[in-house]
Amino acid sequence: MRTTSNPAFRNLPAGQGGGYASFNRQGGMMGGGAAYASAQTSQADIGRAGAGERPLTIDDVVTKTAISAGVAIVAGILTAVSGLYPLALPAFIVGFIVSLIVIFKQSSNPALVLTYSAAMGVALGGIAGLINNAYPGIAFQALIGTVGVFVGMLVIYKTGAVRVTPKFTKWLMGAMVGVVVLMLANLVGNLFGFNLGLRGADGEVGWLAIVFSLVVIAVAAFSLLLDFDMADQAIRGGAPAKFAWYIAFGLMTTLVWLYIEILRLLSYLRQE
Fold first, then answer.
1. pTM surpassing 0.90?
2. Which of 22, 93, 154, 230 has its CB 3.0 to 4.6 Å from that of 235, i.e. a possible disulfide?
3. Domain ranges of the chain
4. Region 37-61: what's the mean pLDDT?
5. How does residue 31 score in pLDDT terms, banded at 50, 70 and 90?
6. How far apart are CA 227 and CA 245, in angstroms?
């Protein structure tokens, strides 16, 4: 099984069975029988599935992801409209802690996933609300941009325009490591009074910050392909239906990252 840049999708149950509808590019939307859990699924997972558990389908993933995204959007809008921007920091901390619990326990608990979505929605709503006060309409533009990138990458995945191969995965992982290293270097530089110019500071935005932001958005966008592929493997592997919540959480972490980066880029362009 290929790895993924998204920690939430690592070690998902997968196997050789499964013919339910999936993201599969070659097979498309296909029906058929599937095992309740694969040979690679842990005994604990098989025990929790039970005899009445059905396999995971594409409808499960779409529905749970839509619910999670909807909760985040509603929470964000309410935060932005109410002006409760100070809630952004505590909400982000809550979301971060919940994400660690979900990732390390590989939990499919819908309450945890929805709590993460709500918390990050509040955090993003607070940040976007503040920026939107300076640049009216930017929060909605970032939302439209995020949805557009998501749909576009899903089309690219389904058509096979870009194939998720081991080579592609290694390239993207390397790009992600490079982006993180540069971000940390820029942060450390700012602490010591030296700005590398990778992020806008003190209202000054150079071409390097814009280019770097575009690169980060591209890396986040292409990481969606890995997320789709891992979800596809779980569906084709006959994972239990409850894992739809776990997959939805994984997709949400990437979408949150993507929204923040698009919002940042738009704010740079508004300053030009």
1. no
2. 22
3. 54-271
4. 55
5. very low
6. 14
- The 3-class SS string of the chain reads CCCCCCHHHCCCCCCCCCCCCCCCCCCCCCCCCCCCCCCCCCHHHHHHHCCCCCECCHHHHHHHHHHHHHHHHHHHHHHHHHCCHHHHHHHHHHHHHHHHHHHHHCCCCHHHHHHHHHHHHHHHHHHHHHHHHHCCCHHHHHHHHHHHHHHHHHHHHHHCCCCCCHHHHHHHHHHHHHHHHHHHHHHHHHHCCCCCCCCCECCECCHHHHHHHHHHHHHHHHHHHHHHHHHHHHHHCCCECCHHHHHHHHHHHHHHHHHHHHHHHHHHHHHC
